[in-house]
Structures are given as structure tokens and as C-alpha cells.
Amino acid sequence: MSESLFAEASRLIAREGWLLDQKRWDDWLELYLPDAEYWLPCYLDDGSLTSDPDSQVSLIYYRSRAGLEDRVFRIRTDQSLASTPLPRTSHLVNVGDVAERDDGDIEVGSSWASFSHRLEQQYHFFGSQTHVLRRTGSELKIAKRYIVVMNDRIPCPLDVYSV
Questions:
Q1: Comparing C-alpha atoms, which of 44, 30, 59, 46 is closest to residue 146?
Q2: What is the pTM assigned to this prediction?
Q3: Which of 111, 133, 145, 147 could disulfide-link to 106, CB 3.0 to 4.6 Å?
Q4: Taking all residues of the chain, what is their mean pLDDT, rounded to a whole number?
Q5: Domains of the chain: which residue ranges?
Q6: SS (H, E, C) the chain
Q7: Which tens digit of pLDDT belongs to each residue from 66-117?
Q8: Distance (Å, whole) CA 48 – CA 27
């Protein structure tokens, strides 16, 4: 894996958090391919996560970008009570590994933390994540995002801008 690929993938992952913090929803959605999967599994117990979003509970699961687009629509039109008012957020990401897969996609492993302030309360979430990136023309796009939230308790609504 080249240093330039590591830098390009790291920039994309960092940009995703920054766009969420800036509430630049259209630019954030553009990072995702139309068939991109977005998944936050639940813990079954202290050491194992759900493995099938179709038959087990997930914190968030969207089979494609259309689910993310619907989520953004609800945020923008105040149809999400959990997002009214929207929190102020700050995302931090530490990319640990970038690897080219046999199928040509790029897998990026990272740790993340997010901080938010809403209704006079401050919250933080943290965890790990895996992005699968795919080159489309000259740029990388997100084909899949798999996010593990490591908090024991989730004290407020959890949404796409929370992770």
C-alpha cells in the first residue's frame, strides 16, 4: 500500500466527520455510492455484536444511500424529534490501517470519537469503524461503513451525526 493511498483514504474519512460537523448534508451524502451500506450493529453481550441486520437489532442500518438521504430529509424538515434541535458536534478520527483488497476495493480501519452538545447536555461516543472505499474515476467513494459504538450506555438519541 502506498503512502499516497493512505493519505487519500485518511483525508476522505476525516472529511466525512468534518462535513457532519458543518451540517453540509449534501456534500456528506456525495461521499457515498448509491448502493453503500451503513451499519451500526448492537451488542448481544459484552463481547459479541449482532451479525445479521435483517434478523437482529441494529442501532442504525441502511441498505443503501437512499436510507441516508431519507434520514437527511427528516433532519432538514424537522420531522425528526430526536434531532430537534440539532446538536453541535465534533468528530475525531484516527486511521490505523489502509489495505487494498483482492476485489480492488480499499478497506480502512479507524478509531473515532464524537462529542456533542444539545439541550444544555454534553455527550460523547467512541468506537471503531471500517470503511470500504471504491475508486470511481479519479476519486474514492464510500461503498460501506461499519461502525461499532463502544459506549456502555447511549444516553441520548443516536443518529448519523453522532458517529
A1: 59
A2: 0.95
A3: 133
A4: 95
A5: 3-162
A6: CCHHHHHHHHHHHHHHHHHHHHCCHHHHHHCEEEEEEEEEECECCCCCECCCCCCCCEEEEECCHHHHHHHHHHHHCCCCHHHCCCCEEEEEEEEEEEEECCCCCEEEEEEEEEEEEECCEEEEEEEEEEEEEEEECCEEEEEEEEEEECCCCCCCCCCHHHC
A7: 999 999 999 999 888 778 889 999 999 999 999 999 999 999 999 999 999 9
A8: 34
The string of pLDDT tens digits covering residues 24-65 is 999 999 999 999 999 999 999 888 999 999 999 999 999 999
Counting residues of the chain whose pLDDT is more than 70, the rounded percentage is 99
Architecture of the CATH domain 3-162: Roll (3.10)
